[in-house]
Design brief:
This protein is an alpha/beta fold and 232 residues long. 35% of the residues lie in helices and 14% in strands. Strand 1, helix 2 and strand 2 form a beta-alpha-beta unit.
Length: 232
């Protein structure tokens, strides 16, 4: 089975090479690869087939619940890992079952604990596990357009997270998904709703801070406009 991911990665690498060598092309540093399940590892494999000197290094890779099958974290040249791009963020929804458990990026987000997703209960275990594994994709898609945002935070242990014992500071929160800060490092946890829209938005303290910031910006703009009108 290993030949298939390698072949796919080489094809994507050829596309990257074409884009970087084209007169109106771009550097690999400007690219963002997104891969789901095996595709997450394929995105990492692409890094093995591009020339960092000629093409640049991949700017970002987002791994959506990287599969546990075929890739067991024993070989960094096959697994998705932080060396594959300038920034690697990983979202876990079926970790330890169909997805890898351990962190594999600069920032790893364990959604609802990382293994079991709300709303995924079914009449068969296979459907339930498949739902957990695939639900990562709509989460990420929503992160692109949501105004609420998936606000994640670090926590000492998974047990602490599940028991609501985490006490993060306001500065500890980061957005998960498309708009994640590339400075994010480590393991984060985030909760979602059971039904769409899944994003819960920021906690009350963050909401109040954002509201104060928005009000301050609004007041400053009003002053600048009034000042400009007086001069006229």
């Amino acid at each position: 089975m290993e030949w298939a991911p390698r072949f796919c990665a080489k094809c994507v690498a050829q596309l990257v090479r074409y884009l970087t060598q084209h007169p109106r092309g771009l550097r690999a540093d400007d690219l963002h690869l997104i891969g789901y399940s095996v595709g997450a590892h394929i995105s990492g494999l692409v890094a093995n087939y591009i020339d960092n000197e000629l093409d640049g290094k991949l700017g970002r890779i987002t791994g959506l619940d990287p599969t546990i099958f075929f890739y067991m974290g024993q070989n960094s040249s096959k697994d998705l890992d932080p060396s594959d791009a300038h920034f690697v963020d990983v979202l876990h929804t079926g970790a330890g079952i169909l997805g890898q458990w351990g962190p594999t990026g600069h920032a790893d987000f364990y959604i609802n604990g990382g293994s079991s997703q709300p709303g995924c209960g079914s009449d068969t275990i296979f459907k339930t596990l498949a739902c957990d594994h695939t639900k990562v994709t709509p989460y990420f898609i929503e992160s692109i357009i949501t105004k609420k945002g998936f606000w994640a935070y670090p926590c000492p242990t998974l047990l602490s997270f599940m028991l609501n014992l985490c006490r993060p500071d306001d500065s500890d929160y980061v957005l998960m998904g498309e708009h994640v800060s590339h400075d994010a490092r480590g393991v984060y946890y985030v909760r979602t709703r059971a039904d769409p829209p899944w994003a819960l938005g920021p906690p009350l303290e963050i909401k109040q801070k954002l509201a104060r910031r928005a009000l301050a910006i609004s007041n400053r703009l009003k002053k600048e406009i009034n000042s400009s009108l007086r001069k006229k």
